[in-house]
Design goal:
By secondary structure, the chain is an all-beta fold. It is 0% helix and 48% strand. It has no helices and 17 strands. A hairpin with a 7-residue loop joins strand 3 and strand 4.
Length: 177
């Protein structure tokens, strides 16, 4: 049984599903049939996947992980047929985005250490980890402009807001707090 967390469609025919068991599935016929993608085997390759994103039909990223174990980024460079998993941070990631062809950004965290940010400058091959010391778990990356990003911090009832593409942050209270 698959427990699914995310779906991503490139177009009306080609889409991807992923979820709890680290399974990645691909369709080329609008979801009528799904086939398992190949994932490399390492200690983290079958951890839960929370989000999928593609910058083109050829290049895709996925993120996830397990609290208190690791954050994982999966990368595909061949249209989602094969994926390579890499451990990139101490806590799971819940969202990931391409900023351009070479830069990518992810967010996540946990209850103890707060917001985590991961960043790649080489299309997703290598990642740097940052902890902005804000309480809460980064749930999503929402770009209001090319430089301004808002990250809801979940249970903390706060937002992390950056005006320099997530290099520095200020903390903003949620409207109902």
């Amino acid at each position: 049984t698959l427990v699914l967390f995310t779906v991503y469609y490139l177009d009306s025919l080609n889409g991807y599903l992923a979820g709890y068991s680290g399974a990645l599935l691909k369709t080329t016929d609008a979801g009528n049939t799904w086939s398992l993608s190949t994932i490399d085997t390492n200690l983290t390759s079958h951890f839960p996947i929370r989000r999928l994103v593609f910058r083109s039909p050829q290049f895709g990223l996925a993120c996830g992980g397990v609290i208190d174990i690791t954050a994982v980024v999966w990368q595909s460079t061949n249209f989602g047929f094969n994926w390579k998993a890499s451990s990139v941070a101490a806590e799971p990631l819940y969202d990931i985005k391409y900023l351009d062809t070479q830069r990518a950004l992810g967010c996540g965290g946990d209850f103890e250490y707060g917001l985590n940010i991961v960043r790649s400058y080489d299309g997703g091959k290598q990642w740097t980890y940052e902890n902005p010391a804000l309480f809460g778990i980064g749930q999503r990356l929402a770009f209001r402009t090319n430089y301004e990003v808002w990250i809801p911090l979940g249970f903390s009832q706060r937002w992390a807001v950056s005006t320099d593409t997530a290099h520095t942050f200020v903390e903003v209270s949620a409207p109902d707090s």
